[in-house]
Specification:
This protein has 282 residues and is α+β, with helices and mostly antiparallel strands. It has 2 domains: 76 residues; 179 residues, Regulatory factor, effector binding domain (Multidrug-efflux Transporter 1 Regulator Bmrr, Chain A, Alpha-Beta Barrel), CATH 3.20.80.10. The protein contains 7 helices and 12 strands. It has a 10-stranded antiparallel sheet, with helices on one face. The protein has a two-stranded antiparallel sheet with strand order 5-8. A hairpin with a 2-residue loop joins strand 2 and strand 3. Helix 2 packs across helix 4. The chain is globular.
């Protein structure tokens, strides 16, 4: 297998954050949700009409269903509702494109694997004891999400008032075996440091700085399945050994999407940290 050397910076822009999406509703947000609900109902009615048309064999009923669909398609209100429903569905299912992601440089590629270089970052992390990585990821996510949603003590309470400080959500969420427990980690957004982050009120959450590091990453889609996760991690480790790279520690699951995202649309990755050794076949 030949290693292809490439160099470019990978940065992701965003127009919103997971924390903002999970925060309290304003009047405008409530009105927006009502419009989305109405749009979904309208789209559902059109979908039902279409299914009725294709499922009905009686010519008279098919002509009737077709007439209803044509009338609906000619309505600007319905067209607007369908467009709004489609936009809402896309925003719901492709939330990672609206969530900031860590910057990295792609150092090399071999096969489906990328070698990435990540800069220093600050993380919030917690250890969870659970029977499976999926259960650990869910519990760890809930614990860390509560921290970024305001269950913390701001360093300047006079500016924040009685509420904790909200921190934007980032992707991916990392899950890694750590002895008899699982380590779940959120990367803090750019601009946050150990000196300005609020203090967690949950004793099980730690804040720490991660030095610059290299990882090998293998991307795949599908549901969060423990067996598939192990298979992809094993595939990654085999590929890393084949080109002569040195892996460090346990492999990592990197999840970019919430559980509500359809499996075929999800971005999952298997990671393993790399040492400083050079690869063969460069």
């Amino acid at each position: 297998m030949r290693l292809e050397i490439v160099r470019f910076d990978r940065a992701h822009e965003h127009t919103g954050t997971g924390a903002e999406a999970m925060s309290g509703q304003s009047a405008g947000e409530a009105d927006g949700q009502w419009k989305v609900s109405a749009a979904l109902l309208a789209a559902g009615a059109i979908g039902l009409g279409a299914m009725t048309f294709f499922a009905t064999r009686t010519p008279t009923r098919r002509r009737l269903a077709w007439g209803i669909l044509k009338a609906a398609a000619g309505s600007s209100l319905v067209r607007s509702a369908v467009f709004s429903a489609g936009a809402a569905l896309a925003r719901w299912q492709l939330g990672r494109f609206f969530t900031p992601q860590a910057h990295y440089e792609v150092e090399a590629r071999f096969g489906d694997v990328e070698v990435r270089r990540y800069p220093m970052a600050v993380v919030a992390e917690t250890n969870v004891v659970a029977a499976t990585s999926g259960a650990a990821s869910n519990r760890g996510f809930d614990r860390l999400a509560s921290y970024i949603l305001g269950e913390n003590r701001p360093l300047h309470p006079e500016a924040a008032g009685d509420k904790g400080e909200k921190i934007p959500m980032t992707a991916p969420v990392l899950t890694q075996r750590d002895g008899r427990s699982w380590l779940v980690r959120f990367t803090m957004p750019t601009g946050f440091t150990l000196a300005n982050l609020p203090v967690p009120t949950e004793r099980g959450i730690r804040l720490r700085a991660i030095p610059p590091h290299r990882v090998a990453a293998l991307r795949y889609s599908g549901a969060f399945d423990a067996e598939k996760t192990r298979a992809m991690q094993a595939r990654l480790l085999d590929a890393v050994r084949e080109v002569g790279l040195e892996s460090i520690g346990e492999p990592i699951f990197a999840g970019y999407d919430p559980p509500s995202t359809l499996p075929m649309l999800r971005r999952n990755e298997a990671w393993v940290e790399l040492g400083r050794s050079s690869a063969r076949n460069v």
